[in-house]
Amino acid sequence: MQDLVIPIIYLLSAVFFILGLRQLSHPRTALKGNKTASIGMLLAIIATLLNNQILDFQSIFIAILIGSAIGALLAKKVEMTSMPQLVALFNGFGGAASLLVAAAEFYRGGAFPTFIFFIITLSVLIGSVTFSGSFIAFLKLQGIMRGSPVQFKGQHVFNGLLVVLVILSSLYGILNSSQLSSMFLIIIGASLLLGILFVLPIGGADMPVVISLLNSFSGLAACATGFVIQNDALIISGSLVGASGIILTDIMCKGMNRTIWNVLFAGVGATDTNTDNLQVDPMKSIKSYEPEDTVVIFENAKQVVIVPGYGLAVAQAQHMVHELQKLLEGKGVVVKYAIHPVAGRMPGHMNVLLAEANVPYDSLYDLDQINPEFEETDVTLVIGANDVVNPAARHDTNSPIFGMPILDVDKSQTVFVLKRSMNPGFAGIENELFYKDNTIMIFGDAKDTVSKLVSELK
Amino acid sequence: MSGQLLIEIYVFVLAVFVGFEVISKVPPTLHTPLMSGSNAISGITIVGAILATGSMPGTISATLGMIAIILAMINVVGGFMVTGRMLKMFKK
């Protein structure tokens, strides 16, 4: 009986996951999709508990309670600005869980067929890379570790050697079963190291790509574990997550006009970027205003476009920005937000932040929608964004960001750039925008500056 | 045994295609919720973790399994809850 009932419930849970994901990708049904998917998970857990191989329920329930409590606490406490770290952390936990299940299967003992050990190796590899890679991403996003790329010579060769080591250890373990246990430990160690080295050279602004890729890996890790324990529920759900992660990765890469290989192996900003042949004329100078000086320009504007970037998240300025929007709209000014696909540190980062500050969704515009509008825009307010508004991407073939789709903010009448200092952005390149005739810099903390603007406009 | 593996590979390949088809066009607003929601689904490893914990009491496998349940459950509960939190924000 259980041979029939359990697989059917698993199938049902897979159906719920598929429906849930479909609903999650449409605005109107997204909330429902989240519920649908969680019902799928509940079904999968129930089906597993029905398995008559299970003798020890107590340990299971204790562990489920602990995990649920920690998860609920994290989900409730997290600030929306810290979402990228949290997602990285969850990715890592998923990877670690897959790694541990593969290890548990290995230590179950008894002889297993050769191909099962290969699959265990694969599962350990993906699980470990997901775990340690996500952990490094978490440290970088949380600011515990330097966000800029960390690279050393021969890094890619070394990473390649680690993969070879994993494969050879697996082969050696199969041929000499007395060495299997020690080989298994080497496989785990090498895989964990690989995950660390894979994320270390990737800089802050490439984080949206890495997070999406690790998201995909966490699914593939579950999928590989499914092959190990021969469970279709894991294989199906894991592949779904793997696919959705790849789709997001692809969207992020297109947003930067780069290939995934370029992001993973180029490490923009680490190399001595061509600071010598900067296209900026040294005779040109920047203009800098105090917030008070800008009020008249805002009051006479018909349309204001706000361009948020990672700096907005750092300064936690989203609520103040919404205040500014309401104030301007009260004066009859049209206010729009221009959202670059890779603004922030994870896919959709800016949308989440602005939603937290109750900014209505219909004032948010994508790159394609807003770019034709800049020419008719009186004031563009750039808050903590840098590379995504650098006109060099359009014409300077020497620029590392050449070809990246950017927001054409320089085409508007006046551009205000809110920035902490003149330090170049993540890519380590000067931003031509700052030197344009129609650009005015306002230095200082973004939140302070916007709140000064708000009080002046009142 | 290899027949079983073959079926699993079939399932895998088809599921990947379903994944690509189902999540075709995602608006930018939903990028983060889709990621955290799908992340919660990857906590499906809990199934393997429960089997490891429950079926071999007292072994090292059971201990590893228990840790795996905790981690997977953080992923599942945390992932679905935070996704819900975000989506409710969008609703307003």
Which helices and strands appear, and what pairs or packs with what?
The complex is a heterodimer of chains A (458) and B (92).
Chain A: H1 2-24, H2 30-49, H3 57-77, H4 83-107, H5 114-142, H6 155-175, H7 180-199, H8 207-228, H9 232-256, H10 260-266, H11 295-299, E1 303-308, H12 310-315, H13 318-330, E2 334-339, H14 349-356, E3 364-366, H15 367-370, E4 379-383, H16 392-395, E5 414-419, E6 439-443, H17 446-457
Parallel strand pairs in A: 1-2, 1-4, 2-3, 4-5, 5-6
Chain B: H1 2-22, H2 31-41, H3 46-55, H4 60-91
In short:
Chain A has helices at 2-24, 30-49, 57-77, 83-107, 114-142, 155-175, 180-199, 207-228, 232-256, 260-266, 295-299, 310-315, 318-330, 349-356, 367-370, 392-395, 446-457; strands spanning 303-308, 334-339, 364-366, 379-383, 414-419, 439-443.
Q: Please, could you describe this protein's structure?
A:
The complex is a heterodimer of chains A (458) and B (92). With 458 residues, chain A is α/β, with parallel strands linked by helices. Chain A folds into 3 domains: 77 residues; 183 residues, no CATH class; 167 residues, TPP-binding domain (Rossmann fold, 3-Layer(aba) Sandwich), CATH 3.40.50.1220. In chain A, 58% of the residues lie in helices and 7% in strands. Chain A has 17 helices and 6 strands. In chain A, helix 5 runs antiparallel to helix 6 and helix 5 runs antiparallel to helix 8. Chain A is elongated. With 92 residues, chain B is mainly alpha-helical. Chain B has a domain of 64 residues. Chain B is built from 4 helices and no strands. In chain B, helix 3 packs antiparallel against helix 4. Chain B is flat and about 50 Å long. The termini of chain B are far apart. The model of chain B has no long low-confidence stretch (mean pLDDT 91).
Q: Work out the count of structural domains of chain A.
A: 3
Mean pLDDT of chain B: 91
Low-pLDDT parts of chain A are 269-280
The largest sheet of chain B is: none
Q: How many β-strand stretches of chain A?
A: 6
Largest interface: A-B, 112 and 81 residues
Count of alpha and pi helical runs of chain A: 17
* SSE ordering of chain A: HHHHHHHHHHHEHHEHEHEHEEH
Strand sequence of the main sheet of chain A, in spatial order?
3-2-1-4-5-6
Quaternary structure classification: heterodimer
Order of helices and strands of chain B: HHHH
The percent of residues in helical segments of chain B reads: over 70%
- Describe the largest sheet of chain A: 6 strands, parallel
What is the CA–CA distance across the termini of chain A? 72 Å
The poorly predicted ranges of chain B are none
What's the gyration radius of chain B in Å? 17 Å
Structural class of chain B: mainly alpha
Compute the gyration radius of chain A: what is it?
25 Å
| Helix content bin of chain A | 55-70%
| Strand coverage percent of chain B | under 5%
